[in-house]
Amino acid sequence: MLENDLEKDYQESLDYVVNLTTFGMNFGLGRIQELLKRLGNPERALRVIHVGGTNGKGSTTVMIARILQEAGYKVGAFTSPHLHDWRERMVINGQMIPKENVIEVIRRVRPYLEAMVAEGFEHPTEFEVSTALALLYFAEEKVDFALIEVGLGGAIDSTNVVAPLISVITNIGMDHMDYLGNDLISIAKVKAGIIKPHSTVVTASENPEVIQVFRDHANAAGVPLCLVGEDVRWESTEIGELEQEFSLTGLNTTYSKLRLPLIGLHQLRNAATAITVCELLQTKYEAHIPEEAIYAGLRQVKWPGRLELLSLSPKVLLDGAHNLEGARALAQALPLYKRDHLILCLGMLADKEREKVIDLLVPLADEIIITRPNSPRAGDWRALGSLAEHHGRPVTCIEDPKEAVLFALTRLKENEMLCVTGSIYMLADARQALMDELR
């Protein structure tokens, strides 16, 4: 296929999937189960690690994937949302799904969608179709393991059609309350929906009441529960601006001087979770994962937009702290970065706990720039500026994220730092503009 034809066909195929957002968020597994049945149930051919939780799902997923890849396995990873390219959602051994495969798999799935609607079924949503595409792609590529990140919740999420070897729930925080409930226990019960018979459960949650919810679900399913923080322990031994070092006493092995290029103490918890999953794969499912693969996998892991130091001079930090838990992790990490002055560029969706995030992050900064995420859920984005002004910091509102971060760069002096944070929808635009400018 000629390159121009490939690009045209790819864009048309991608537009078809993305335009399915018109069907909104419509929970329930009936539609995707029907679609997968028509596709021959590709999910049944996969050895799945299902990763849920409020924060840290993506980081934990890519750490497990990288370790397994270093151990010689072919590993598929389905994550969302993407940062710059839709194909980031479907990756095998670090390589995005080729455009030719996107065109082919959508071409094959589309008639089944049209037949479902003709027969009176509701049209599957964009995320349901994306999930089905990933499961089909991974099955046909015969991956050894498929890492499937939960989109939203657990029990009600379209990824919950899988029968996992291991169900991972990183933690529980207050997010997506409109859909999941207004307290941690209610949210935990929905997230616990990914716990299935014939599997093992791993959680890094620290809340005793939340852990009890998981314990009850695990007991009901007749499966063991592994607690990262009790059954597995770790200790930070060195932390810098570009990487950190830690030791860990795992289920099978004690590791010293593990190095991780993802910054923040929360990433050590995620790394401990990833190692625990890999140790369980060894003991319960006879996977061969040498110690060297764990060291090398963590040392080489990449996850853009998560406490990512894009430049040292000027110092520019990006972090997708899109909710209160994420903001807490960022606030904990900011003192690690030496600077005389901090400019904070922030853009959040209206359905997040914006006032609490402002109260947490704004006092740490000297100057604030408020911008608007590229999403219909941005709402009254300027209201963030009014909230920030209550802390007595100078505030500038610039609607376009690219213009906002480029303006911020002009304000930076020597030994000063820019931190860009908030919604992933804002971070993608800002990151691209910064990379182009700092190149």
Can you describe what's shown?
There is one protein chain. The protein is an alpha/beta fold. It folds into two domains: 298 residues, UDP-N-acetylmuramoyl-L-alanine:D-glutamate ligase; 131 residues, Alpha-Beta Complex (Protein-Tyrosine Phosphatase, Chain A). It contains 15 helices and 17 strands. The strands form three sheets. The chain has an eight-stranded mixed beta sheet with strand order 4-3-2-5-1-6-7-8, with helices on both faces. The protein has a six-stranded mixed beta sheet with strand order 12-13-17-14-15-16, with helices on both faces. Helix 11 packs parallel to helix 12. The longest helix is centred in the middle third of the chain and has 21 residues. It is globular.
Low-confidence stretches: none
Count of structural domains: 2
The biggest beta sheet is recorded as: 8 strands, mixed
Sum up the overall morphology in one term: globular
From the alpha-carbon coordinates, what is the Rg to the nearest angstrom? Answer: 22 Å
Number of helices: 15
